[in-house]
Write a structure and sequence with these properties.
The complex is a heterodimer. By secondary structure, chain A is of the alpha/beta class. Chain A folds into 4 domains: about 230 residues, 3-Layer(aba) Sandwich (Dimethylsulfoxide Reductase, domain 2), CATH 3.40.228; about 150 residues, no CATH class; about 120 residues, Rossmann fold, CATH 3.40.50.740; about 150 residues, Barwin-like endoglucanases, CATH 2.40.40. In chain A, about 20% of the residues lie in helices and about 15% in strands. Chain A contains 21 helices and 33 strands. Chain A has a 6-stranded mixed sheet with strand order 27-29-28-33-26-32. In chain A, strands 3-2-1-8-9 form a 5-stranded parallel sheet, sandwiched between helices. A 3-stranded parallel sheet of chain A has the order 12-13-14, with no helix packed on it. The longest helix of chain A is centred in the middle third of the chain and has 19 residues. By secondary structure, chain B is an alpha+beta fold. Chain B folds into 4 domains: about 35 residues, no CATH class; about 60 residues, Phosphorylase Kinase, domain 1, CATH 3.30.200; about 30 residues, no CATH class; about 50 residues, no CATH class. Chain B has 6 helices and 9 strands, in the order ααβββααββαβββαβ. In chain B, the strands form 4 sheets. Chain B has a 3-stranded antiparallel sheet with strand order 1-2-3. In chain B, strand 8, helix 6 and strand 9 form a beta-alpha-beta unit. Chain B starts with a helix and ends with a strand. In chain B, about 45% of the residues are buried. Classes of the chains: A alpha/beta, B alpha+beta. At the A-B interface, helix 2, helix 11, helix 14, strand 12 and strand 13 of A face strand 1, strand 2, strand 3, helix 3 and helix 4 of B.
């Protein structure tokens, strides 16, 4: 989230789209109710189903699953066409005035720079026109035909209300009413927040769905303000933490990244990462990348990381391609992966195309499962009849099942969706011989390390020289790990000389070995360490900031700055300097956040800008300090796989024969930049055999596949069901309560049919399109009756940027069982 | 004597039921029907966070067991933390049922192994589990580690063993997992953020 849960109460309009907060984040959704009751806010919901969020909404519009870019593109066209944008904000805080280079083009669904064979783009032709100093050229009047605003107007004018309705199935009047609600926040004294979740991420164009919404929010001036924001509602209690810590194929902690094969030295590695400002005097905060990287290397390899060996640069692996989960199971199914560790993750339940997952696991030499609960993955080799029809004697995988603690049995921190790091304490020991995760990982690692120290082997250096100063080497404590991730100085650090008394001895800030107070103290000369730079400040010399429990809200807008600790630097709302106009005074005096006080920025949040950056300076420091431009990118010359602007593409499994935006270009039917493995293309079904759109989702009473192990949860939501409209039920002779079989080209499930008005038939591109709704929570392991894994049905293709699988828009057939 | 619920709670905590105060006629009106003290009065409160969704609701866990040696603490009740600014004492149906997660009959208790082709689990010790897993991983890394790619560039990666990390594990556990696995050159490495 750019904002946070409590801040939602400050909104005037709440848009829930690509998510279902009332269902999946019920206690967070309560802040929507607060906004409605105390701020006269209106809730607008756009969803393929009339969800529990829709039931609380002031307005609901249906949409075909997977067509959100067309809908949002239509809203952008409405805003630009009706001049419903926050003019001063757009002109000053976005790249609307920037001039795009001549090489950029877009034709029939494909941007310039596309390589057919590789299914990927080179971004070279998307760059700005630069001046002789290397800065981007701008046209403040925003009339230049190649300025971003004009390029965008041209791009989005194709998303007319008629076209939107044709692609999404949303009735035109409903679409336009939603546009009105949204457009009402284009003024400085009205704010809209968007609450979205996996309904936007779990598509082959998911990243672009989110980006389209972000562009919309920027045009409205809703980013960096109280009650505004792009609020990503994450799925798990610490998925934000694990994302921040970089536990992804090519990532490092703090959104640093591993080097590619071609980046053989530090300078080459730094160049695309330490972004130089594209406009004069901008912070372009990533230009400090070397400080973060060197500090990480010092945290991990200590004295073994020196200037001479480029800070142990080669101790880290380099990558030639992404080895994300889809790639991992592709390798597994080809017999190229020997071992796999599944910690607190149930791929048999959670990954697409269950058959492919089981095949993959069956080819492993060894599988290690670490979990507090039993899972389908740990028992993938067991026959469970129709629910898991395998032959154990043919599966040669050695499977270890290691019991771990659960949340109640450990100390540590979790990062919620609002970026708050909250400490928790152990309340009881775990059952039996279960151990904490750190102890299990340390148990395995210290033995591997001892073997390398004793017997040698392949490149032992990074393993034997890894820093390991924990008091109990086989069980690093949560406190030690948190302090290490925060970081410390290795030498005494002094304050800069006092200009009023330059001869005075320098004041000591920190002694060598002490915890740093924030990432501003990090250096690239090997004198600082930090395991995760964005978390610097969470454990200072003043102690564990994540354990703070002062819930006072002095400004009355939900800014509890002394409860726990948020990254970065305890800022609660990102880009908060954008809550004030270019003169440093608040856009909305009723909703002040951070403003210029004459000498410094201050207010109801930690300023997200250099505190002394005077807005009256020529070339003032702009609020979007992480971008090279200093302003927000409506047009993105770099960063996205599909292009600098979003475009509607069909899901890989679609009820339509072609993309209505580009009916004559098969290359632009589905995402031209998405990766599809050989064999997975063949596993897609065609609408002839599978005529109905399917989408999968959660229920309030359950959490994925965990809670079928939890008696209370299993009791209040016991039996597996699917949801269909009255018209689909009538067409297939299905009555409410009948057992039905839902199948895709990859398998089938059986469940009870719930026939409901909450599902509707849509008119899409001249066809009547029906949707089958599939709640996720059943499987063959649990304390209640077994059910079928919904991911038996889903397709093995992911978003072009993230490789997140397309679970939310695919096609199925349904019939009475 | 007349008491409101809060006062009765405190009286019970002091263990006055059946005491001399009661004999003197000062016992709370409801206490005569109470045969034991209100359980939560002698529980230890521990602050924690719900492990399910990303709202991160504060919870209070109540456990019994006086922490003397050989006493096993046992959590008997979990409810929302009223001090928490986001959930303010409330929980959703999942959080409200957390006790049944902690005490689920499907909690794993002992390290086990399933040998190739077998139809069942076999209980093993942690020593054996750590030893075998470490040996398998080292052997696989030694056999398949890629120091340089076909262009002669230094890559130092290990692609034949992978890991999926838990999105409900703590930051501290995630940190040590990243540090150790990356030091071995692992690239087949993801968590639920990917899906």
């Amino acid at each position: 989230m750019t904002n946070h849960w409590v801040d939602i109460k400050n909104a005037d309009i709440v848009l829930i789209m690509g998510g279902n907060a009332a269902e999946a984040h019920p206690c967070g959704f309560k802040w929507v109710i607060e906004a409605k009751q105390h701020n006269k806010a209106r809730l607008v919901v756009v969803d393929p189903r009339f969800t529990r969020s829709a039931a609380m909404a002031d307005y609901y519009a249906p949409i075909r699953a997977g067509s959100d870019i067309a809908f949002l593109g239509g809203v952008i066209n409405y805003l630009l066409g009706n001049d419903k944008i926050q003019h001063e904000y757009v002109k000053n805080y976005t790249n609307a005035p920037f001039i795009v280079g001549e090489a950029y083009s877009f034709a029939d669904g494909v941007f310039s720079g596309y390589d057919d064979a590789k299914r990927s783009y080179s971004a070279a032709s998307w760059g700005y026109e630069l001046d002789e100093k290397g800065f981007a050229k701008v046209d403040p009047a925003m009339q230049h035909p190649r300025c971003v605003l004009q390029v965008m107007k041209k791009h989005f004018e194709r998303y007319t209300p008629d076209m939107v309705s044709r692609i999404t199935g949303t009735p035109k009047d409903r679409f336009l009413k939603v546009c009105e609600y949204i457009a009402s926040t284009a003024v400085p004294n009205r704010a809209m927040t968007i609450m979205y979740a996996l309904g936007w991420t779990q598509h082959s164009v998911g990243s672009e769905m989110i980006r389209t919404a972000a562009i919309m929010q920027l045009l409205l001036g809703n980013i960096g303000i109280a009650g505004g924001g792009m609020n990503a509602l994450r799925g798990h209690s610490n998925i934000q933490g694990l994302t921040d810590l970089g536990l992804l194929s090519t990532s490092l902690p703090g959104y640093l990244s591993l080097a590619r094969d071609g980046e053989q030295d530090l300078e080459t590695y730094y160049k695309p990462r330490a972004l130089k400002p594209l406009r004069p005097n901008q912070m372009s905060y990533w230009q400090n990348y070397p400080k973060f990287f060197v500090s990480l290397q010092k945290a991990w390899w200590g004295d073994a990381a020196t200037a001479e060996n480029s800070w142990a640069y080669n101790y880290l692996p380099k990558w030639d391609r992404s080895y994300d989960v889809l790639a991992a199971f592709e390798l597994m199914s080809q017999g190229k992966l020997n071992g796999y560790i599944c910690q607190g993750f149930n791929p048999v339940g959670s990954f697409p195309n269950k058959k492919k997952i089981i095949t993959g696991l069956s080819k492993l030499k060894f599988l290690v499962v670490i979990d507090p609960l039993n899972t389908e993955t740990s028992e993938f080799w067991k026959n469970f009849g129709e629910y898991n029809d395998v032959k154990s004697e043919e599966i040669q995988t050695t499977v270890f099942r290691l019991p771990s603690t659960c949340f109640a049995e450990e100390d540590g921190s979790l990062t919620n969706s609002g970026r708050w790091l909250q400490w928790h304490w152990k309340g009881a020991p775990p059952p039996g011989e279960a151990l904490g995760d750190a102890e299990i990982i340390a148990g395995i690692f210290t033995r591997i390390r001892a073997a390398y120290a004793k017997d040698g082997g392949a490149f032992p250096d990074p393993i034997v020289k890894l820093t390991w100063a924990y008091k109990v080497p086989t069980n690093p404590s949560a406190d030690e790990l948190a302090m290490e991730a925060n970081g410390r100085v290795l030498v005494d650090v002094f304050a800069p000389p006092d200009p009023k008394d330059p001869k005075a001895p320098p004041k000591p800030l920190l002694k060598g070995g002490e915890q740093i107070a924030g990432f501003g103290q990090l250096r690239d000369d090997g004198t600082t360490t930090s395991g995760c730079w964005i978390y610097s400040g969470m454990w200072t010399q003043a102690g564990n900031q994540m354990a703070r429990r002062d819930n006072s809200d002095p400004w009355g807008i939900g800014q509890t700055l002394n409860w726990a600790w948020s990254w970065p630097a305890n800022r609660r709302i990102l880009y908060n300097a954008a809550s004030s106009a270019p003169n440093g005074k608040p856009w909305d005096p009723r909703r002040k956040l951070v403003q210029w006080g004459g000498k410094a920025w201050g207010g109801a949040d930690v300023p997200d800008i250099r505190p002394d950056a005077n807005p009256d300076d020529p070339d003032r420091v702009q609020p979007f300090i992480m971008t090279a431009e200093g302003v927000a990118r409506l047009f993105a010359p770099t960063g996205m796989a599909e292009g600098p602007l979003p475009e509607h593409y069909e899901p890989f499994e679609t009820p339509l024969e072609n993309n209505p935006m580009h009916p004559n270009n098969p290359k632009a039917k589905s995402n031209p930049a998405a990766r599809v493995f050989k064999g997975d293309m063949e596993a897609f079904g065609s609408p002839k055999d599978f005529p109905y759109v399917a989408t999968s989702y959660r229920l309030t009473e359950h959490f994925h596949y965990w809670t079928k192990n939890v008696l209370t949860s299993a009791i209040i939501q016991p039996e597996q069901f699917v949801e269909i409209s009255e018209s689909l039920a009538g067409a297939k002779g299905i009555k409410d309560g009948d057992m039905v079989k839902v199948s895709s080209n990859r398998g089938y499930i059986k469940a009870v049919a719930v026939v409901t008005k909450r599902m509707t038939q849509l008119d899409v591109d001249g066809k009547k399109v029906e949707t089958v709704g599939l709640p996720n929570h059943w499987g063959f392991v649990g304390v209640a009756k077994p059910g079928y894994l919904v991911n038996t049905l889903t397709p093995f293709v992911g978003d072009a940027n993230t490789q997140t699988p397309e679970y939310k828009s695919f096609i199925v057939n349904i019939e009475r069982a | 004597m007349e008491m409101n619920r809060r006062q009765f709670f405190r009286v019970s905590a002091a263990g006055l039921a059946g005491s001399s105060l009661a004999a003197l006629g000062y016992s709370p009106t409801e206490a005569l029907a109470e045969t034991r003290n209100f359980k939560l009065a002698r529980a230890t409160e521990t602050r924690n966070t719900c492990p399910y969704c990303s709202v991160g609701c504060g919870v209070i866990m109540y456990s019994l067991g006086d922490k003397a040696k050989n006493v096993t603490t046992n959590i008997v009740h979990i409810e929302g933390d009223p001090d928490h600014p986001v959930n303010r004492g409330t929980l959703c149906p999942k959080g409200a049922g957390l006790l049944d997660f902690v005490h689920s009959s499907n909690r794993l208790k002992y390290p086990e192994v399933r040998e190739p082709g077998s139809k069942e689990w076999k209980r093993i010790s942690w020593d054996e589990a750590f030893d075998r897993v470490a040996k398998l991983m080292k052997a696989d890394r030694d056999a398949n580690f890629i120091a340089t790619n076909s262009n002669g560039q230094t890559v130092n990666r290990w692609l034949s063993t992978g890991m999926l990390c838990a999105s409900a594990s703590s930051n501290e556990s995630g940190y040590i997992t990243h540090k150790t696995m990356r030091s071995m050159g692992m690239l087949v490495f993801d968590n639920q953020a990917r899906v």
